[in-house]
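Raw record, unedited: Two-component system response regulator
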Amino acid sequence: MIRICICDDEQLHSSKLEKIIMDSAGLYQNIELDIDIYESGKSLLKALKARNEEYQILFLDIEMGILNGIEVAREIRKIDKNMIIIYVTSYDNYTMESFEVSPFRYILKPIKEEQISKVLLHAIDEVRRNNQYLFFKTQNLNYQIKSETILSISSEKGRIIHVVTVADEFSFYGTIKEIEEMLDPLSFIKVNQGTILNLNYVHIVSGTDIILTNKENFAISRGQRKVVKDAYNNFIKRRIGF
């Protein structure tokens, strides 16, 4: 689940933004979205500081009452360095002032459904890249590998898993099915019965093969060729903002 909050002192804007986000939820495969709304920066900060709530994505209005969006973001950064902050504003003259809080995007009011959907898709991709790990155990040691560093995962005899990362290689007991369930389906694709590849490291896709940036070549099974082609095309579209 990805938790999203909206902080805006105008209820009409908050409700409209919430509806657009929920209407867009179907675009995000295998992701459940949970949305909370705050009508002031003060109430949001109170919830965060009390550790009652934790959010990955924040849609934050700049022009609010006692605390404006810049001041709220400064306080949030003392608590959470990684929260994705998306400013929603009627003005574009806050850009320089907001640099210190590392906003992810700016959205100008009046908000448009297509714009929100596109920004949200990029934000969700960012959350999943930053927070996803592969966990496994080998020789009584527990490992935690950031998924974005994985190039390929392959199975030997159905029970031994080989993982190749940008820096290391690991082998351990497990199944491809178990591993597949831990991975982001937007970034990883199963190319044949025993191989999963990270789309971020794909160099060339032909009709029957995939070559990764490390020059490794993998065969695409006949039944997966259309699936792989569609997944890679959609991956590229997301990367360039379509």
